[in-house]
Amino acid sequence: MLDSSKNKYICQIFCAVYFVWGLWLQIQNTVNIQFERKTTIGRFITTIVIFLVFVLILLSFKNVNKQDILYLGIFLYLGIISALHEAGLISFCAFLMTYLVKNVSINKILKTFILFSGLTLFLVVLLNGVGIVPDALQFYGLYTERVRSTLGFNYYSYAGEMIFYFICSYIILRKQNISYVELIFLYCVNYYIFHFTDARNPFILSTLFILFCLLIKVFNFKKNLFQNKFVKFGFEYCFPISFFIVLLLTFLLPSNLFQKLNLVLSNRLILNLNGFHNYGVSLFGQKISFITMDTQGFVSSNYNYVDSAYLQALFLNGLLYLGIILVLSVIVCKKIFKTHNLFFSVALILMAIHGIFDPPLLWIWFSPYCLILGIANKKQNELNIELR
């Protein structure tokens, strides 16, 4: 164990680095603003962050046990594989930070995520409203006057994804202490973003979480849920179950039902199927260049993007990578369930469901889930203190 003063020092630096880096990554990767040398600046900042994270890892090396070494190796593997096939240094740095979560309060991590995500959302939507940050795309429906806009972000779904993870993190922290006024405010912001972006999946899941919290406050039935074996199984294995649902929807539906659901899900199912045909499944992954837009900024006729977070991880980073992620998720969900933190458990289920249809589950600039995986290397007694 580290002494309390050193651990506090590591925690403070970690959260400061996470705030600055997370805010930068959201600006770089989600906001519709362009400036000279943005990519170069981003690489420079990420390199500095990697250096600082390595320093914090070295500072945390005291009485290191076999479990710590095992998890460091696991997170290094995940970081290297995803760096080779996905987001480069960003992915590598994200998994290095995940290892450090063993020394950092998960509540402080969520607070930091809420701060920079809330700041980005507020400023970008405000600046978009006054015309300073323009929409990247606008879609005018054929049979309606409604305009689908990006609210100043690079794509329609980005604001919706951001508010979904913001709401999950906020409710995890507030738990049963959240007020009716807070729930109403969260729903209003959620609906405002949905009204302009028409991003359905994050809106529906965020709304369900808000309604669930409302029911808990009114009826207070949460104690009974932890005594049910089926509920326990669903909480603990929600991520592998969600991956199985992806495969079920892709391969095992009758053709007529497949076509109907594919239409409802904006062609996601056929894109999943094409992904298996085009890329196949490998043990260690492969580099894939997804085609989304053509040179004129319209949706390409060769569009081949796979939205499911699970299938993206499978195609890009391989079977071993996805298997490790799913095993870590089960360990995390089991530990959270043992704390009887219902709000955290439900948030994880919603994140798992969200990953069936949308990709940013492990993108550190959108979601805190990558860092939440670090709970797997936390001791249960330390976890109880933080989450109860």
TrEMBL record:
The keyword Membrane applies. The keyword Transmembrane applies. This is Polysaccharide polymerase. The chain crosses the membrane at residues 6-24, 44-62, 74-101, 113-133, 153-173, 180-197, 203-221, 233-253, 309-332, 339-356. It comes from the Bacteria. Keywords: Membrane, Transmembrane, Transmembrane helix.
